[in-house]
Amino acid sequence: MDMRRWTPSLLALAALAIVPFASSQIEAQTPKRGGILKYVVPGEFPTMDGHRENTFALIHPLAPFYSVLIRVDPDNPNSGTYVCDLCTEMPEPADGGKTYTFKIRKGVKFHDGTGLTAKDVEASFQRIIFPPTGVLSSRVAQFTMVDSVTAPDDETLVFKLKYPSGAFIPALATPYNFIYSKAKLDADQHWYEKNVMGSGPFIFEEWQPGAFVKGKRNPDYYHPGKPYLDGYEAIIAKTQTLRVQAIRGDQAATEFRGIPPKARDDLVAALGKDITVQESDWNCVLILSPNHKAKPFDDPRVRRALSLALDRWQGSKDLSRISIVKAVGGIVFPGHPLAATKEELEQIAGYWPDINKSRAEAKRLLKEAGVPDLKFTLTNRSVDQPYTIVGTWMIDQWKQVGITVEQKVEADGPFYESLKAGKFEVGLEFNCQSVVNPLVDVSKFRPDAGDQYSQIEGKDLVKLHEAMNRTADVAEQRRLMRQYEKLILDEQANNFVTLWWYRIIAHRSYMKGWKITPSHYLNQDLSGVWIDK
Amino acid sequence: MLVYVVKRIALMIPTLFGAAVLVFVLMRAIPGDACMLRMATGGGSIDPHVLEACHAELGTDQPMLVQFLAFMKGLLTLDFGKSQWSGRPIMHEVGLRFQLSLQVAIMATLTAILIAIPLGTISAVRQNTWIDYVVRSFSIAGVALPSFWLGILIILGILITSKALWGSPWMPPITYVPIWVDPVTNLSMLIWPALATGYRYSAVATRMTRSAMLEVLREDYVRTARAKGLFHKLIVRRHALRNALLPVVTVIGIEFAFLMGGLVVTEQVFNLNGLGKLFVESVQNHDYNMTQALVMMVVGIFAITNLAIDILYGWLDPRIRYR
Predict the structure, then answer these.
(1) Which terminus of chain A, N or C, has less C-beta within 10 A?
(2) Which positions 264-283 of B are in contact with A (Cβ < 8 Å)?
(3) Residues A17-33: pLDDT tens digits?
């Protein structure tokens, strides 16, 4: 597969489609040097190892310390284009799309002064893709197409794939793929769980567990002129009210995850021109998962009725005023070239433009299945935004076709235990990804996926998903994606997409050079951020 | 006295053991585990092999008895091992938070004492006057207002007032600096939670002081002191208040112990990286080792505080002697 041939056209389309809805103009100005950026982080990382962890709470404070091989274009993060960070240019795939050869920059140094070579990059990806016994890597499944990774010399890195895959380059650009020092890894594979030592724009300065992480400017950073900041302080603050107040009281310039519309409006009302708001569709979605082993949800007619009762088009308008959800979409991030168009969506049960017709069909199906007065429990996470809000909205929607639902809200531990053990009737869960990589992102809907809780069966989905991943033809990928989507959302009615999230970032207007992305995991190395006070 | 103290310390052993068994069983009765949480809450896919490896790493795949014996060994050697969430030594994690929690507890206790004892005394001495009514209303409000809500109001009040005064809103610092490093930053951060919790804490103590004072002021020896012609202030301060303090000391002591680990919501409102927050997070994260260690620490603090209160009784009231 020739990635370079298809990627630009695919991504140009994406650039047009995935446009962030910035409510204020991001002015092009000459960056100023200096200052310490303070921002709040709504969570805390368990360990410091990016290869092991899954949470944004690790990316926000620690990503500025590390380099990556390639990344989403920081100057145009919504374009979906990938650019080199440690490599010198994006490679031309060879061997029918099965070999990628990267040239690594010369003269890059780790923060301890040692040189970074292709051997370090190789050691890092060996750990991510083929972790040694006793080492946890959370992204092994993203690299199932990789056969080997080698560094024949200090400046060359070669990935050999088992088959050509459009999911490979986006997987490489995952922001957790920090490049570690081979020497440190050789001495102790667990060293990075408790220590930081990278080659990124900032040097680790201090960490107080539960409180903050501080970094200072790396004077030897290999991107000339960057970073602009003297340093930063990532302050852990788990309460949303406090985070918003901290921005208002200028104890922090922003938080990078996202705030609800009400908090945005409060900040704008309180701070006026001193606050800037950037908004974007968000590559996270709430998924409704009926338990196929629990009666009557073993009957596809009942499951289908659940989706038909939801007026997603109106719900998008109403809920986006109070919650962090907005876009109506199928299983692929809305706006991506592989996503369903509005016309295609309207052919799927639950997305029909006429809600009365849809609800009449829902009632008919319930009656036919012998459960016209269906009652069930919706198992939900005890997280307001957007779980319980969307859950409450759905209960009202279902009520309109005669379904009575009780919402059972659980803390994360019991919630995931219920899902894992199959002790639920219908659950509301989520899928949240960093790089928009639909071919990998939709693997959640496969029966054999580790996070597929609906206990679905059948090999047709697996075959379709694998076929999608093994073709280089974008049109073919799109065609297969529609079949896959139709099976999941309509014909088999396995899982249902509710509404896609909507990301709102309010930051102090003196913070410049940061651009919103469709993911709270991306563009967080802060190398381009500067302060204009 | 020494024999009494030794006996009391010996009695702590079954208390600690009972608490240890209880927390061990209860933690494992909560559905879910740290590995699943860590992987599922990130939103990505979960690899069953990674999950299995994680369980092996944390030791949660071991039989219950093995886990319990390891916990008991840790308890006896005061080495609770590593956090199952962060992998860091528990004593290090607790130590970081301990100084903050201790400072807030001391400041809140001092605030409470400074409010409660004078107000409770005045309220009793001026019983059924307007002063008494004001003090009683003030203390009832303190009991009724949750301290976290008061904390939110304090922050909002500071934001609004500072904007009105200086044109831009200001709020207290949200990262802790030890008092010996930067006393101004330290106090400007901690004074507000100390006030919020100290006020609530004082409300109970004020009412207790008032009741105890009313009782003591009706005692025969107070009447005798008056008959002897002693000054009113001297009677109140030297003869009545000292004897009325016994129940007040109990309340203050228990509240102090509670403040060391129970300021969960207030810590979140003011972003205090204290023991209460660590406690809740360790339960939420299914971090068995950390929760067990914290429970044992809080049980220990309560036991020691109770012992200290009993010893203080003897000093306050010489009639009380322990054998």
Answers:
(1) C
(2) 268-271, 273, 277-278, 281
(3) 444 444 444 456 799 99
3-state secondary structure of B89: strand
Domains of chain B with bracketed CATH: 94-316 (1.10.3720.10)
Angle at B83 between CA B71 and CA A41, to 5 degrees: 155
Percent of chain A with pLDDT strictly greater than 70? 95
Contacts of A507 by beta carbon, 8 Å cutoff, 6+ apart:
A247, A253, A254, A275, A276, A278, A514
Range list of H helices, B145-263: 147-166, 183-217, 220-227, 232-234, 242-262
- Specify the DSSP element, H or E, that contains B172: none
> Residue B238's pLDDT is what?
84
Q: How far apart (Å, rounded) are the C-alpha atoms in residues B82 and B60?
A: 13
pLDDT at A2 over 60: no
Instruction: Quote the CA–CA distance of A369 and A490 in Å, as a whole number.
Output: 16
Q: How far apart are CA B119 and CA B134, in angstroms?
A: 10
- The answer to whether residue B91 neighbours chain A at the CB level (below 8 Å) is no
Apex B112 CA angle, B111 and B117, nearest 5? 115
Beta partners for residue A84, in sequence order: A70
CA dist., res. A414 & res. B243, Å (int): 51
Query: Chain B interface, mutation test: which of A130, A192, A232, A239, most B Cβ atoms within 10 Å?
Result: A239
Average pLDDT over residues B225-238: 88
Interface membership of B156 toward A (CB under 8 Å)? yes
Q: What is the ipTM of this complex?
A: 0.78
Q: Is B43 on the interface with A (CB under 8 A)?
A: yes
3 state SS of B109: helix
| Dist. CA B251–CA A226, nearest whole Å | 58
Residue B228, classified by CB atoms within 10 Å of its CB into exposed (0-12), middle (13-18) or buried (19+), is exposed
Residues of chain B contacting residue A443, judged by C-beta atoms under 8 Å apart = 45
Residue carrying structure tokens 């000459």: A30
Residue A12 has pLDDT above 60, yes or no: no
| pTM listed for this prediction | 0.84
- Write the single-letter amino acid at B152: I
Asked whether the beta carbons of residue A245 and residue B159 sit closer than 8 angstroms, the reply is yes
Q: Which amino acid is at A280?
A: S
For domain A281-502, the CATH superfamily is Dipeptide-binding Protein; Domain 3 (3.10.105.10)
Instruction: Report the alpha-carbon distance of residue B284 to residue B281 in Å, rounded.
Output: 5
- A523's enclosing H/E stretch is none
The string of pLDDT tens digits covering residues A40-49 is: 999 888 889 9
